[in-house]
Each structure stands twice: as C-alpha cells, then as structure tokens.
C-alpha cells in the first residue's frame, strides 16, 4: 500500500467488530479524540511493520483496542500485535494478489472453512495437526521477530514445558 490506512471499528456486543466510517468515529468520541486514535494507531502500526520487515515478516494488518485512563489519557488495552490481532506474512513468499502462508490464526480459519460447521458454538475440535501447525507458526513468528528461540523465552518466564 502506498500509505498506511486507518480503518476504525467498534466492539460489537456479539460476533465480530463492526467497521465504522470516520464520521461515525468522530460522532462517538469527538473529532479531537478520533484524530488522536488515528495518529496513535498509525504510529504504532508503522513502527511495528518496519521492525517486522527487518526480520522478513510483513505486518499486513492489525487492530488496536484503546481505552481512557482515570485522567482521560488514551491507553492501549487488550492484546497488541499478536497473531490473534494481526496478520503476519513471510516477506519472501508474498506476491501482490496472492494469499501467502501466514504466521497467524488464518491457518485455523482455513481449516475451519473445510469443515461441515454452521459457525455456531461449539466449534469443531481442532485435530492435532492443526493445533500443532498453528503453534509452530506462532513460534516461528516469535523467533523471527524476537531474534531468539521461543524455548529461551519460556525459560526466562519460568514456564515449565511438559
């Protein structure tokens, strides 16, 4: 893309987030706060995208969830730049118009699309190969972005591995 796009949405009470127009966003939070959200989102994305690209990963898109603290300052909440909130693609296998392999939950989504499931809870149980394949993608993304083995991170955090 020639420039970073800011695409606002709101948290839906059920299902997926709902895309809104800039005018709707300004109506919800006011123009000044909306512009602050836009600037913060673009700055966070561009910094993360540049860093990821240095490691051979394209940060195709991401979402940020914001809130306001007691003093009225904008704060980022929930997950940030995870495989559940972002789409990560290996730069060496990307081609415009293609659907490259990914380091995110798209692997699970693709498998789910092949299942006879009406998308109501409960969903189908993931087979070991889908679970393990997803975990392997997440680990590879971590290792490429953090430039260290995932096992060393687990050790540092005191996480035992069974």
Explain how this protein is built:
By secondary structure, the chain is an alpha+beta fold. It is built from five helices and six strands; from the N terminus they run ββααββββααα. The protein has helices spanning 22-29, 31-54, 106-113, 128-146, 150-157; strands spanning 9-10, 18-19, 57-62, 65-68, 74-77, 86-90. The strands form three sheets. Strands 1-2 form a two-stranded antiparallel ribbon. It has a two-stranded antiparallel ribbon with strand order 3-6. Strands 4-5 form a two-stranded antiparallel sheet. A hairpin with a 7-residue loop joins β1 (9-10) and β2. The longest helix is centred in the first third of the chain and has 24 residues, at 31-54.
